[in-house]
Amino acid sequence: MFQKVLVAEDLGSIGFSVVEMLGQMGVTQVDHVLFCDDAYQKLMYAQQIGKPYDLFISDLSFGPDFKSDDIQNGMHLIKRIREQMEIKTIVYSIDNNLQKVRMLVDKYEIDAYVSKGRKGPEELKKAIRMVEEDDVYYSKDVLSAFIDHRDRDINDYDIKLLQLMSEGNSKQEISAILNQQNIEPNSVSVIDRCQRRLLMIFDAKNDAHLIGIVKDLGLI
């Protein structure tokens, strides 16, 4: 069993229950932090002194840390960690956005994604055991993130469109820019359909919400 585990969870009741469960599973050292910055600093310090953590369990959504706001959410935290070290990582979250799950698995190579819910603690325990055996685990309600839905795949054209949207360009301006760069399709009607599709994929309420989501995911 893992011997040194860090849990990043800002809801005390959930965090304490995870810590208690890990203790019951035989983990000798479990540390619990409430904020992303604290998690990052603990992981980095442990790495620097040659006593790294064996496992990192993190939520994705965190309340504001009024001491510091360098790392704003679990996605940013995991991205920063992956840039610095290799550590087995389990996401334990109520956020089941499929694009976000795919990003975490494909780009940041997390080892497990467990959905919070009625069966969450049971699934988390199973995930910990599987990850310890160098296996992976994903809750059933996010497995569809790994099914090849061609209409939901994000391609280079989508990224270009999102980048132009983030710069404040209107559909007409985007059409003109794409035409100048010989990128097709570049008609306003196609751009409008693509934007509607992206809103649906990311479950965004409007264009501003969409841009905020894809920036959080690191797509642009």
Automatic annotation (TrEMBL):
Domain Response regulatory: 4-131
GO biological process: phosphorelay signal transduction system
Residues bearing PTM 4-aspartylphosphate: D59
Highest taxon listed in the record's lineage: Bacteria
Keyword annotations from UniProtKB, A to Z: Phosphoprotein
InterPro entries xref list: CheY-like_superfamily, Sig_transdc_resp-reg_receiver
Name of the protein described by the UniProt record: Response regulatory domain-containing protein
Species annotation: Nonlabens spongiae
